């Protein structure tokens, strides 16, 4: 086996692999001997088929298989052992590759094109400037979160007089000629909420009524859709279309949702028993949580701006464009040359960023450890629980949920990439000059809207 590399320029090279008979004969013969032991060919006992016959029948296929293995293994070993930083995958050379004939040839030559990444080093200093947007926590943010918690952890209480948003329950009877229609519809456990009625006059019939009162109203006038009427009367939507009679409801219960008071019971529900002991501590804890979330947003924006800064700083890097376009097209059968031309600048920008990140990881010995992934997965799990108001969850529940998340290959890959990105951002924050700018949440969000 002989391998020769020819550099065409800093980004393109040709590698030629020359394979002689001695490189593969022994392995092909071994394949034939192994196959002979299990070959089942009519007219011959197992293990007694002549090797010459097997060679004639299967030798070409075994030779091709062995040659492909030799080429693949040796090509990638050469790339790895010589630290060739290739882009994409090696491609067969379109002009120098000679036709292969396994019937007549004993020696073979394979020629590959290599696309090589540009050589450069990433240097970060305090001369490199990146804006860092610290998002201020407003009183309104804290108050909105307080309202969210008081609303989420409220209680349903039975009342005596109806308000618009109350849920009423009682027996619903169809009317005819001003009195109950004995053969009409009856719903013994009907429920309704005046707030959902589109007609203000119908709604006004209920607001201010008391438990035990009998209210006569018209569902067809009160509600906007057949779906609401069918739900109230427990009939089909088609049947609801024909309903035009009045109904009477005897109010058996009035249920109202009361937001939680800002007290120790609420503190314990939100943050766990005894963690917070006063409204002042409660609001401080909320501010701390908001700051943590806003910091993640600030770091994300820093990552975007740092990427833009570094990509612009190394804008003069040269890539093997022709090779890369050929490789991308060969790897994506649904991609057209026209679409590739449109997308190619963005591809190069992404590739440049990947190379820069790789350089930073190597220069700063950044590694993603199992403990890092566990911690990030737990952070993801906590964030997901928090979306549903489940704060202060038991550590064991968080750990088990995070463990289940990491069983999914796609999620695990996302976690690994995110941890590496976080560590790179940490290096950038320590190394470059951060131009701190305090802005409001509205101003921060507007920056993304303008993009």
What does the secondary structure layout of this molecule look like, with pairings?
Blueprint: E1 2-9, E2 12-19, H1 21-38, H2 51-81, E3 86-92, E4 108-116, E5 129-135, H3 139-152, E6 155-158, E7 167-176, E8 179-180, E9 186-192, H4 200-206, E10 214-217, H5 219-222, H6 226-233, H7 237-240, E11 247-258, H8 264-271, H9 279-313, H10 321-331, H11 337-363, H12 370-387, H13 395-405, H14 409-431, E12 433-439, H15 441-449
Parallel strand pairs: 5-12
Antiparallel strand pairs: 1-2, 2-4, 3-4, 6-11, 7-8, 7-9, 7-11, 10-11
Helix pairs in contact: 1-2, 3-9, 12-13, 12-14
Give a description of the structure:
This protein has 451 residues and is an alpha+beta fold. The protein folds into three domains: 2-116, Trigger factor ribosome-binding domain (Alpha-Beta Plaits, 2-Layer Sandwich), CATH 3.30.70; 129-146 and 267-449, Trigger factor, domain 2; 155-258, Chitinase A, domain 3 (Roll). It has 15 helices and twelve strands. It has helices at residues 21-38, 51-81, 139-152, 200-206, 219-222, 226-233, 237-240, 264-271, 279-313, 321-331, 337-363, 370-387, 395-405, 409-431, 441-449, and strands at residues 2-9, 12-19, 86-92, 108-116, 129-135, 155-158, 167-176, 179-180, 186-192, 214-217, 247-258, 433-439. Strands 6, 7, 8, 9, 10 and 11 form a six-stranded antiparallel β-sheet that branches. Strands 1-2-4-3 form a four-stranded antiparallel β-sheet, with helices on both faces. It is elongated.
Helix-strand string:
EEHHEEEHEEEEHEHHHEHHHHHHHEH
Number-wise, the strands total 12
- Compute the CA-based radius of gyration: 37 Å
Low-confidence regions: none
């Amino acid at each position: 086996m002989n391998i020769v590399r020819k550099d065409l320029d800093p980004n393109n090279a040709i590698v030629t692999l020359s394979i002689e008979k001695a490189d593969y004969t022994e392995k092909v013969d071994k394949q034939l001997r192994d196959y002979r032991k299990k070959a089942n060919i009519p007219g011959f006992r197992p293990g007694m088929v002549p090797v010459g016959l097997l060679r004639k029948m299967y030798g070409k296929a075994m030779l091709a298989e062995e040659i492909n293995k030799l080429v693949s293994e040796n090509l990638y070993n050469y790339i790895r052992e010589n630290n060739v930083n290739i882009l994409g995958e090696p491609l067969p050379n379109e002009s120098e590759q000679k036709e292969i004939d396994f019937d007549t040839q004993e020696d073979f030559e394979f020629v590959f094109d290599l696309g090589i990444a540009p050589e450069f080093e990433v240097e970060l200093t305090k001369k490199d400037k990146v804006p860092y947007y610290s998002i201020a926590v407003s009183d309104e943010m804290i108050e909105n979160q307080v309202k969210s918690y008081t609303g989420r952890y409220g209680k349903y209480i039975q009342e005596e007089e109806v308000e618009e948003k109350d849920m009423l329950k009682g027996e619903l009877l169809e009317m005819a000629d001003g009195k109950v229609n004995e053969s009409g519809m009856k719903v013994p456990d009907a429920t309704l909420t005046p707030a959902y009625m589109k007609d203000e006059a119908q709604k006004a019939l209920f607001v201010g009524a008391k438990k035990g009162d009998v209210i006569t109203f018209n569902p067809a006038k009160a509600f906007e859709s057949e779906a609401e009427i069918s739900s109230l009367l427990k009939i089909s939507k088609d049947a609801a279309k024909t309903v035009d009679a009045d109904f009477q409801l005897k109010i058996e219960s009035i249920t109202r949702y009361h937001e939680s008071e800002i007290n120790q019971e609420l503190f314990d529900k939100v943050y766990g028993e005894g963690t917070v002991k006063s409204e002042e501590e409660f609001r401080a804890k909320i501010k701390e949580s908001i700051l943590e979330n806003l910091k993640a947003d600030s770091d994300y924006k820093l990552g975007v701006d740092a990427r833009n800064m570094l990509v612009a700083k190394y804008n003069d890097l040269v890539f093997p464009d022709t090779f890369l376009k050929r490789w991308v097209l060969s790897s994506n059968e649904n991609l057209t040359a026209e679409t590739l031309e449109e997308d190619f600048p963005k591809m190069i920008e992404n590739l440049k960023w990947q190379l820069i990140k790789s350089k930073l990881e190597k220069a700063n010995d950044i590694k993603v450890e199992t403990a890092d992934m566990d911690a990030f997965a737990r952070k993801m799990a906590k964030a997901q629980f928090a979306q549903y108001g489940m704060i202060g969850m038991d550590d064991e529940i968080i750990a088990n949920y995070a463990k289940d998340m990491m069983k999914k290959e796609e999620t695990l890959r996302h976690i690994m990439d995110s941890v590496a990105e976080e560590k790179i951002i940490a290096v950038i924050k320590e190394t470059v000059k951060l131009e701190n700018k305090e802005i409001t949440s509205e101003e921060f969000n507007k920056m993304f809207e303008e993009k």
